[in-house]
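Section 5: illustrative case.
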């Protein structure tokens, strides 16, 4: 019928605009490399902030002693205690506790939030078991993973640029978040020193490096997306400090904010961005990450419903609600292997209140999920290829096989199998057979917490 043809025309046009042929991906990878250079050259030189982390000392495996970590980056935070046994014994013991933040504290005062966190930390410290105490006369040390945009001023200090992810506490903005935490710990009578302040990408990089010395970069694919990598200090023109002994510096790319004229963007992406809380920002993130993939699918379905009566004469009212279709639901539909696509049918019924969909319609929806996921996955691969290119690891030099490991973490990477598989195969496609043999993608499961504790160890005052 005419309706079906019109719906298919909308789908085909969307597919065409989302196209990521290999030539386009190479342009995206090249643009990423160019922007990395620009962001390293000067502050504000690029959409890529390329933030200097002050981490010039990644874990070696020799770290020893008792260390704490605090991981704050969403509505939950985790407190972690690890006993490190050095090269032979590695992680002897690891304990953690997860605490949720009451919503009123996310929009209250800075003191109230940090007091709450410090109290939870003090309670956790009080549960130290036998053999899990600091050496006599030594202060406890903590690695603080704080995954909000921070202008770092040293390894253990940094000012909050802005809150994101639903937090809004005016009096923290512009303050040193380590100072805020330290004052709160003093108020609750907890004697602990913050030895390192990092974000989740850097924590993941450190955690990955502890287990594998060839880890050179970390990428988060979760609600948002970001990457960090190890740069030569001499290749950072905007760094005017002393050259670190190791000659290396970890850079927090904030790659979610990458944008390029080569990105295949559609009118749906444009509208999503216009309607977002941060229009014009985080464009790469808005085509790739878990917060947005399901929403893009929903927007295309709205067009098919409104312009081609895809779901019948009336547009299903639930379909009009932004963010109602979450990426985990999209993923479940995309992975439906039943012959009648019954997962797709039940998701449409339960979430969008669209009953009685035909198999033909369900197949179209699976195809739509595939288009959105594969664009995101292929662009992620192009981003990684851009980082490898910046490091000169995208080619084989003089027949020498240099192993490069990238630590990946985040719910999207972990749970959206088709996304992950597509990303990995695209990276191979971009790098070629020979180079691919020396590039390894490693899942660093919750590496950011232990990573922060390890960075506290390598920046301990007792070394
Ligand atoms: P965060 O990024 O908030 O720190 P996670 O790394 O756990 O948290 O990632 C959570 C995100 O991962 C969710 O917002 C969602 O987009 C995505 N995600 C979680 N489970 C799935 C799933 N089964 N399929 C696809 N995406 C998922
Ligand atoms: Mg996370």
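Designed sequence:
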């Amino acid at each position: 019928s005419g309706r079906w043809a019109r719906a298919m025309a909308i789908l085909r046009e969307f597919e065409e605009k989302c196209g990521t042929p290999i030539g386009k991906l190479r342009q995206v990878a090249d643009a990423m490399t160019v922007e990395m250079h620009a962001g390293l050259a000067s502050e504000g030189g690029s959409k890529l902030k390329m933030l200097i982390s002050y981490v010039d000392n990644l874990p070696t495996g020799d770290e020893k002693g008792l260390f704490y970590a605090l991981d704050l980056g969403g509505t939950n935070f985790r407190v972690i205690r690890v006993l490190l046994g050095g090269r032979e014994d590695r992680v002897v013991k690891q304990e953690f506790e997860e605490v949720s933040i009451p919503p009123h504290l996310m929009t209250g005062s800075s003191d109230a939030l940090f007091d709450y966190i410090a109290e939870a930390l003090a309670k956790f410290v009080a549960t130290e078991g036998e053999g899990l105490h600091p050496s006599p006369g030594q202060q406890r040390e903590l690695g603080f993973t704080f995954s909000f945009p921070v202008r770092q001023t040293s390894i253990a200090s940094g000012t909050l640029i802005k809150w994101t992810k639903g937090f809004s506490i005016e009096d923290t903005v512009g303050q040193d978040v380590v100072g805020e935490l330290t004052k709160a710990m003093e108020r609750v009578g907890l004697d602990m020193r913050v030895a390192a302040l990092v974000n989740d990408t850097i924590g993941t990089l450190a955690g990955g490096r502890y287990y594998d010395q060839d880890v050179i970069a970390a990428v988060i694919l979760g609600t948002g997306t970001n990457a960090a990598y190890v740069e030569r200090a001499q290749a950072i023109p905007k760094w005017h400090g002393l050259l670190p002994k190791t000659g290396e510096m970890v850079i927090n790319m904030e790659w979610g904010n990458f944008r390029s004229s080569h990105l295949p963007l559609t009118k749906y992406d444009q509208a999503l961005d216009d309607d977002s809380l941060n229009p014009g920002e985080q464009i790469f993130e808005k085509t790739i990450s878990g917060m947005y993939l399901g929403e893009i699918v929903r927007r295309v379905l709205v067009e098919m419903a409104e312009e081609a009566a895809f779901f019948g004469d009336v547009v299903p009212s639930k379909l009009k609600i932004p963010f109602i279709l979450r990426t985990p639901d999209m993923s479940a539909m995309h992975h439906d292997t039943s012959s009648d696509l019954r997962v797709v049918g039940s998701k449409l019924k339960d979430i969008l209140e669209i009953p009685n969909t035909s198999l033909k319609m369900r197949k179209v929806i699976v195809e739509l999920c595939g288009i959105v996921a594969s664009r995101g996955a292929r662009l992620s691969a192009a981003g990684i290829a851009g980082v490898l290119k910046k490091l000169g690891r995208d080619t084989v030099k003089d027949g020498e096989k240099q192993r490069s490991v990238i630590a990946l973490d985040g719910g999207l990477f972990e749970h959206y199998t088709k996304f992950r598989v597509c990303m990995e195969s695209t990276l191979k496609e971009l790098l070629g057979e020979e180079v691919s043999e020396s590039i390894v993608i490693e899942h660093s499961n919750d590496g950011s917490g232990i990573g922060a504790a390890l960075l506290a160890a390598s920046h301990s005052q007792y070394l």
